[in-house]
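pasting for ref
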Amino acid sequence: MAHKLSQNWVFWYAPRGRKAIAGSDHYDVNLKEIGEFNTVEEFYTYYCFLGRPSEIEIDNKIMLFRKDHRPMWEECLEGGTWIIHFKKRENELLNKKWEALLLACIGEEFDDDNVIGVVLSIRERRNLLEIWLKDRKESEKLRIGEKLRVALEMDPNNLTFFFKEHSKSLNDKSTMKGAESYTFVKTPLETPQTEPKGQHPDLDQFKL
């Protein structure tokens, strides 16, 4: 008996950098739908086929999005994305966190349709995990940031998140350029707070 999910999800693929067709206007040409699923069993069929992040070549992106949401900045201009960096030597950690993030999404651990998808970006110098929001209201953004850290079991004492608005990404043609960095403080909940550029945060400064 198949185990149904509450919503349908779609895996996507897109090359980046030198593998992509030159020019931002061609992003939709590069974007390929891998397949749609709505059961746990179908999810694992795709997941095993795609392989783990450490097995994916540089300059490739794998994405999981709710059906009817395509992973394109211009289709979600009121939203933004949380971003976590992983060093190239952290492949095993990235493998575990990518799997945890996928399961958190299809299991609705964020308990919020504002979370529309996640992205794995394999790059030459570092790898990225992104979680896309369709609405970047501050309260919603921070609440999901907290749930993201818990779902991935990340140590708040050794963690920096980044956040970038999709409208700015579209203008910059970059995910990371100008992204805001966040660290966690206890208030008493562990809450992501903006870190002033070029400074280390004073924890007392950010108490709510």
